[in-house]
Amino acid sequence: MSDLWSYLATNGGDVLTALVQHIWLALLPVAIAFVLSLPLGALVHRYVPVRHIALTTGSVVYTVPSLALLLLLPGILGTSVLDPLNVVVALTLYSLALLVRTTADGLDAVDPTVLQAATAMGYRPVRRWFAVQLPLAMPVILTGLRVATVANVSMVSIAALVGIGGLGQLFTRGFQLGFYLPPIVLGLVLSVTLAVIADVLIVVLQRGLTPWSRAGAR
Amino acid sequence: MTLDYLLDAANWSLTSPDGFPQRILEHLGYTFLALAIATAIAFPIGLLIGHTGRGALIAVNLGNAGRALPTLGVLMLALALVGIGLVPVTIALVVLAIPPVLATTYAGVRAVADATVDAARGVGMTEPQIALRVEVPIALPIIIGGLRNASLQVVSTATIAAYAGLGGLGRYLFDGLATLQYDQVVAGAIVLAVLAVAIDLALAGTQRLLVSPGVNGRSTGNRPTTARPAPKLAG
Fold first, then answer.
1. Based on C-alpha coordinates, what's the Rg of chain B?
2. Is B235 in contact with A65 (Cβ distance < 8 A)?
3. What is the pLDDT of residue A27?
4. Distance between CA atoms of B193 and B199, rounded to whole angstroms?
5. CATH number of the domain encompassing residue B155
6. Which CATH class is domain A2-211?
7. What are the chain B neighbours of A67 within 8 Å (beta carbons)?
8. Transmembrane stretches, by residue range (chain B) (predicted)?
9. How far is CA A9 from its chain centroid?
10. CB of A153 within 8 A of CB of A194?
11. Of A63, A67, A160, which is closest to B173 when you measure between CB atoms?
12. I need a labelling partner for A132 at 20 to 30 A (CA). Which of A95, A142, A206, B182 fits?
């Protein structure tokens, strides 16, 4: 335990850099995928052929191991193996595969009679989508977002095996120091804490965005 | 050309300890060992929790916490505590595989209609009989879905065995990176991706064989519901 504090005292700067980089590499892909998944999920929800193609593509992308994708992307994108862009692209693809599906599921679950009522009240399609359909689909969409976020936070560590930053570097550091425990334990604790905080933040966001779901639960 | 290593027949020799056939077998070995142990631990617990409804909160929270654990960190911790070898690698992969198997077994059994369970009780089945002959067959598509998800993650992550000094397909990735031979890295990554897809297809086939026609709707002419992939974890 005292080892842990002395490690933190001497390497605090490195740990902080790794943590900040970890946050960027994990959350930027989720944010990109979330924004893209809304229109894509709407297309998948609306058109059956698109659904088939998109969901099959998604499952295949999902099957490709992250380390393999991380090492194949430089050849496809023309980036260097050490470029963090590879991590961002790889994790965006995985998050997208998950979020498009949950967005479509969320939109599917909206009661069609509610939409008919909205139309009858004079909502035009675009406004109906933003004011009625999307908010009602939000709980399912945000559940998918939680899963994608937690998965990303733990997956970014793999990038350290290729030599890209993030908390995974604390693991490889421990490895290079002959399985020295402090950086390993520190990396595990920070990574799990980060995942939990991100998860809780999305739950809070969900409560703020969908106040009616709490009212119904009471 | 970056595909040279993959297409070189010498690398496909059955007897070479460095060839693809040998490395694929090693990789499959680590994968199946971890999956077998994880299933032996998680399946009975998931079944018990799902059947009795007790400890559900623990199961859900354990599953979520397991998801947040980076496998690389677990491996390093196990290496530091146990030493180098197959044991720490297997521990890390088992920790990775338990949450999806436990969560889907629990959820699948829980989702069996109460009326069905009551009917089974009504015709005089004992609790173990209800669990094994009614709940498990009905929940089987979901349970196998969890197993597919776990196997995908374990196959992907078994590359870390090479980082810990063992074999498997990770050898090509790490050796290639260390010696800057990108064609070797690409070859390893492609073989790994193909292996992952092949295992998933094999398990999908197994699911078709094992699941009763009465459960997946084939016997009534209904379209079977497709299994949705569970969230990807580390790997």
1. 20
2. yes
3. 94
4. 10
5. 1.10.3720.10
6. mainly alpha
7. 156, 159, 170, 173, 189, 192, 235
8. 28-50, 71-98, 154-174, 186-204
9. 32
10. yes
11. A67
12. A95
